[in-house]
Design goal:
Elements (H helix, E strand, L loop, with lengths): L1 H44 L6 H23 L7 H22 L1
Helix pairs in contact: 2-3
């Protein structure tokens, strides 16, 4: 009885390993073929850099999205701890805003 389940587990593990290896191979081939498109995107859109105005818009959207996810995950974060959410929003927004403008 134990031998049969062990053989079944080995067969399942082997099948999973083959699928994962194929997935990694497909992702590697996709990455190789995507390089020219990514280089073109980088040269076209990222060359001039972002100013403070564009970085502020990006930081605002990212901050709102992250804090909504945090509030939903916390459960009562929308009502019970709004003062901490607001403080976290402004701190996260300022940090993202300046870091995006500096890096990009």
């Amino acid at each position: 009885m134990v031998g049969e389940s062990g053989n079944k587990d080995k067969k399942d593990a082997r099948a999973l390993a083959i699928v994962l290896i194929l997935l990694v191979a497909v992702l590697a081939v996709t990455a190789v073929f995507a390089m020219p498109a990514l280089a073109e995107f980088s040269a076209l859109y990222l060359a001039p850099g972002l100013g403070l105005r564009d970085a502020a818009i990006i930081a605002f959207v990212v901050t709102i999205a992250v804090l909504v996810v945090f509030a939903i995950a916390a459960g009562d974060g929308l009502l019970g701890e709004i003062q901490f959410m607001l403080l976290g929003f402004f701190a996260f927004f300022v940090m993202l805003w300046l870091m995006i403008a500096w890096v990009f």
